[in-house]
UniProtKB/TrEMBL annotation:
SUPFAM superfamilies found in the cross-reference section: NAD(P)-binding Rossmann-fold domains (SSF51735)
Alphabetical keyword list: Oxidoreductase
Species classification: Bacteria, Bacillati, Actinomycetota, Actinomycetes, Kitasatosporales
Top-rank lineage group of the source organism: Bacteria
Protein name per the record: 3-oxoacyl-ACP reductase FabG
Membrane-spanning segments: none
Gene3D superfamilies: NAD(P)-binding Rossmann-like Domain
Protein family (similarity comment): Belongs to the short-chain dehydrogenases/reductases (SDR) family.
Keyword Transmembrane: no
Ranges of residues in domain Ketoreductase: 7-191
InterPro entries: KR_dom (IPR057326), NAD(P)-bd_dom_sf (IPR036291), SDR_fam (IPR002347)
Length: 246
């Protein structure tokens, strides 16, 4: 029996990159997996098809997390169709950068809606249904520990907010055995930040290992936190960043 057999996980932003890798890895560990998408329906369904081809169970949910009710609705659909929720992985977000003076109010509101508000609302909804021993895992950023230069104010602000939220969740839900953690990726080779991109050499130079990580590096850390090994880890961050913040 796999370590997550009988568990149900919801991953926001699970159609590609890190989200897709986490969906497949959690499914391989035995969990039934729900994953949300906002635009890439074909990619989300391809992830679900891969999971089902390997004998797993997957649910694809459309969720525009800029809308206030979307995160709660995704949790409720997961519980309704898969029977429960044990693991919430808040992965959806925007990779946003640019000069401070160029940031518009609309852009600010959009980033905070997805990267912060939806995380709070999903956690609030999931906590209503989780049994003792549940997991709430949010995907942060290496900018939580080190901002390497200008143009990252919005992303650094939004992702750092997850730390305070996670500490509060850990204290609030700890008596029920529910843990809350943040995983902070460093440079990860995805279509949003390819290892062959124009800033890749600079990003590699900031790491101790001198290379990009893979989406599966993040998926492995999340699977650990979601499983029995993560039961005493809460209210903290786990840097999976190749030594970016060393």
């Amino acid at each position: 029996m796999s370590e997550l057999t009988g568990k149900v996980a919801l991953i926001t932003g699970g159609s590609r990159g890190i989200g897709a890798a986490m969906a497949k890895r959690l499914a391989a560990a035995g969990a039934a997996v729900a994953l949300t998408y906002v635009q890439a329906e074909d990619q989300a369904r391809a992830v679900a098809k891969d999971i089902e081809a390997d004998g797993g169970r997957a649910l694809v949910i459309h969720a525009d997390l800029t809308q206030p009710d979307a995160a709660t609705a995704a949790v409720e659909q997961t519980v309704r169709e898969l029977g429960r929720i044990d693991i919430l992985v808040n992965n959806a977000g925007f990779l946003t950068y640019g000069p401070l003076h160029d940031v518009t109010v609309d852009e600010l509101d959009r980033v905070l809606a997805v990267d912060v508000r939806s995380v709070f609302l999903a956690a609030q909804a999931a906590a209503r249904h989780m049994s003792d021993g549940g997991r709430i895992i949010s995907i942060g950023s290496c900018f939580n520990g080190r901002v390497p230069g200008a143009n990252f104010v919005l992303q650094a602000m939004a992702k750092t907010a997850l730390i305070g939220l996670t500490k509060g969740l850990a204290r609030e839900l700890g008596p029920r055995g529910i843990t809350a953690t943040v995983v902070d990726p460093g440079p990860i080779d995805t279509d949003m930040n390819p290892a062959a991109g124009e800033t890749a050499d600079f990003q590699r130079s900031l790491t101790a290992l001198g290379r990009y990580g893979t989406a599966d590096d993040i998926a492995a850390a999340v699977t650990y936190l979601a499983g029995p090994g993560g039961r005493y880890v809460t209210g903290t961050t786990l840097a999976v960043d190749g030594g970016y913040t060393a």
